[in-house]
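USER: If only I could read C-alpha cells as easily as an amino acid sequence. It would mean a lot if you studied the pair and described how this chain folds. Here is the record:
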Amino acid sequence: MKTEFTDVSATQKTITIEIPVDIVDAEINRVAKGYTKQARIPGFRPGKVPTTLVKKRFKEQILHDVAHGLIPRAVDEALQERGIEPVDTPNIKDVALEEGQPLKFTAAIETVPPFDVGDLSTIEATRHPSVITDEAVEKALQNLRQRGAKFEPVEDRGVDNSDTVVLDIERKDADGGAQTRTPDRHDDVSLELGSPANPPGFDAELIGLRTGESKTFTIHFPEDYAVKEMANTDVEYTVVVKDIRRKVLPELDDEFAKDVGAFESLGALRDRVRADLQQESEEHATQHLRTYVLKQLSERVTFDLPPSLVDREMDRRIEEFASRLMQQNVDPRQAGIDWAQFRESQRDPARASVASALALDEIARREGLTVSAEDVDKEIERFAVRAGRTPAALRAQLEKEGSVARLATGLRREKAVDLVLSRARIL
C-alpha cells in the first residue's frame, strides 16, 4: 500500500492512499461470491449464477461494499504507522475504484499535534473568601417566609398591591386596523401584582377593582419590550375580577422553624441556613477558581484548533441552551432567537472550552492518569441516584448511546483538574 502525507496545518493532514490491484481484485471477488449465493436471476438456479454476470449486474453495490471494507482499514493502518490519532472521522474523497485497477483515494484528517502544557506550578489563581453576612442569612429566611405564604380571600376591599387576583382576560389590538388579530380570551388567569412578567402598567389598572367588577383599558408596550412581537404596540384588555386573595406571611419564630423542617427553634433554622449558604459560597468559589485555572490552561494551547472540535462544542452549547428553554416550557422555535447569530456568539467560548479540554487530556497522558471500571461504576451510581433510576438501567442507556467512553473521558479530565489545582499556586 502506498501512502503520501501532506501537512495542511498543525491539526489538518491529507493522506493519499493507493491499495494494490491484487488486493482490490481479491476483495471484489470475495464480495461477488457473496452476491452469487443470494442472487436471483431468471434462467439460473440460486447459487449457480456466473460470477461475471453477478459482477456486471451488481457492479455498483459490489464496488460500494469493497470501498467500505478496504478504505477504513487502509486509513487506520496508515494512521497507526505514523502514530496519528484523528479527532473525528476522516473525510474520504476522490475515490477511484475499478476492477483491475488500484484503489486510490484521499483522506482529510484532523488531529492534535504534540504539545507541552508547561510547568503546572507556574499557574496562579486566587480563591475568593467565603464570608456569609447576617444580612444574607436574613434574606434567605425571608425567602423561606415567602415560600410559606398563605393566600386568604379578600371581600371587604378592592385589589391592592401584592394581591393575587383571578381574572377572565380578553385582549385585542387597540388600533382596529385591517391587520387586527382575532381577540383572544383566557379564563381563570391567576396573576400576582408586582410580578415582573406582568405587562407594563397592567397592575395599576387593576388597583381598586372589586370581585365581580370589570374594566377595559389599553396598554402600550414600549419599543424595547423583551417580547419583540409586542414591542411598540397598543393592546386593549377587558378584565373581569373573579377572586382576590392577599398574601399572608408566617411569623418568623420557632413554630415557623418547626414547620420548615422540624427544627427545634428559629436559632437552629438560622444556623442551618448559614451553613447551607457557606457551602454554596465555597462551591461557587471553587467553581470560579476552576474556571480561572482552565482559562490559563487554554491559553497554553497555541496551535489552531481542529475545526470539527470547535463546531461540535458550539452545537453542544446550542443544544444545551435549547434544552434549558424547553425545561422552562419555552418552544425554542418560537423564542424569537436568531440561532445562527447565537451559534456564532458561542465560537470564542467554544474555542476556550476545547483548548482547556485538550490541555487536560495532555496532562492526563503526561502524568499517566487513568480511570478504572470502578470509577465509572461509582459515577453511574451517582447519576442514577440524582435521576431516580437504577444504576443498571442508566448504564444500559449509556451503553446504547455510546456514552460510557465519554463519561470515562470526563472523569479523566476531572482527575487532571484536581492535579492542576494541587500543583498550582493558590493565593
In short: The radius of gyration is 33 Å. The first helix runs from residue 21 to 38. The mean pLDDT is 91.
